[in-house]
Amino acid sequence: MPFINVMVSKKVTQEEQLAVKAKLGRAIxxxxxxxxxxxxxxxxxxxxxxxxxxxxxxxxxxEIKLFGSSTREYYEKxxxxxxxxxxxxxxxxxxxxYITYQEIENWxxxxxxx
Length: 114
Fold this sequence. Notes:
about 110 residues; alpha/beta; two-stranded antiparallel sheet; Macrophage Migration Inhibitory Factor
């Protein structure tokens, strides 16, 4: 039950969004027990993001929510994948990307909670 929220400061075409979504779908499997069939992704382009007080270069913010918990090892692997995807697909420099992780104990789906 992962959710990935991606906010970027630039325009993003439909083709770029689909490419990012597909690559995130593959990347989520670095977490044991997580896979694309239960992944939800939101991509919000043209956000008013500032990094170091400036917004003169493309910037991205990723928020990843996971049902349950994971380890630092898997978070580091996913961070590397996420930054690589943002750089390859959206030309966002890896040093202009932040990522946060949140472990969720209670997660609702299809009328019930896990």
